[in-house]
Amino acid sequence: MRIVLITGISGSGKSVALNVLEDTGYYCVDNLPPALLASLVGTLCEEGTQALAVAVDARSAASLATLPGDIRKLKDLGHDVKVMFLTANTHSLVARFSETRRSHPLSHELHPGQNPAARRTLIECIQEERERLSAIEQLGHVIDTSELSANKLRGWIKDLVESENAPLTLFFESFAFKVGVPQDADYVFDVRAIPNPYYDLTLRPLNGRDAPVIAFLDAQPSAEEMFRDIRAFIEKWLPSFKKDNRSYLTVAIGCTGGQHRSVYMAERLAQYFNGAERVVLRHREQA
């Protein structure tokens, strides 16, 4: 059975991810206590279910500690298990809870004898949740949704689902340093040393996928040298990630605004590796 476990920080988009998987044919269960995972898988296997997606959150604190072992047991039984861990920075999470006017799931927890007036603040809930989930964050592919719209997240989840049969998926992601480094990056490369098309008024409104910007950067020796160096680094270390049975490797390429140089470089790298590897290309700051 194909099994996708969706976990992460509340407000980071787990419901969006679960809905995408449901639309692609997965049997979906939300907020399942990890202790019930093995019995659920057994029951659905008997019924002939081929694909299962389960969302797990920090409210199942008592059984979260067993989740890594549960995953290993399922893999030993021959199931294809993948984990998606969604996260976002605290500023984005606070804004989302404010917009939806919903309370954090942990805000309703009270210690025995505790006065209801002493409930955790939203910031305290987010910090507590990060601590509870820290041990399982490294179990799978981390997706930083801080700067993502719900629609863009849906697209990224679909890319992940489509890559599920590949031994390793290589993600190239462009981003803007002025917005922040993606938390889901395995490697981060800074291409701000390359001449910036932004200072050419005819190129400023364009991006790194447009022909005039490509021509400008193709003419820069430093851009070609940077491309060769990043390409060589990935080619050298990619076999090690495959031997380590990694399912995903995210390479983030950053420039100042995430519009020209990082987009150009991510596009070139994706084009080079596509075919030899399963490649997914993402531009965080682009619509």
Plain-language structure description:
It is globular and about 60 Å long. The chain has helices at residues 14-23, 37-46, 61-64, 67-76, 90-100, 122-133, 150-162, 211-218, 221-243, 261-273, and strands at 2-8, 27-29, 51-55, 80-87, 141-144, 169-176, 187-190, 248-255, 278-283. With 287 residues, it is an alpha/beta fold. The model has no long low-confidence stretch (mean pLDDT 89).
Return the structural class. Answer: alpha/beta
Please estimate the helix content: 25-40%
Question: Poorly predicted ranges (pLDDT <50, ≥5 residues)?
Answer: none
Task: Give me the count of strands.
Answer: 9
The rounded distance between the terminal residues' Cα atoms is 35 Å
Q: What proportion of the residues form beta strands (DSSP E)?
A: 15-25%
N-to-C SSE series? EHEHEHHEHHEHEEHHEHE
Strand order of the largest sheet: 2-3-1-4-5
Summed over residues and divided by their number, the pLDDT gives a mean of 89
Number of helices: 10
How many structural domains in the coordinates?
Answer: 2
Calculate Rg over CA atoms. Answer: 21 Å
What gross morphology would you assign? globular
Main beta-sheet strand count, sense and barrel state: 5 strands, parallel
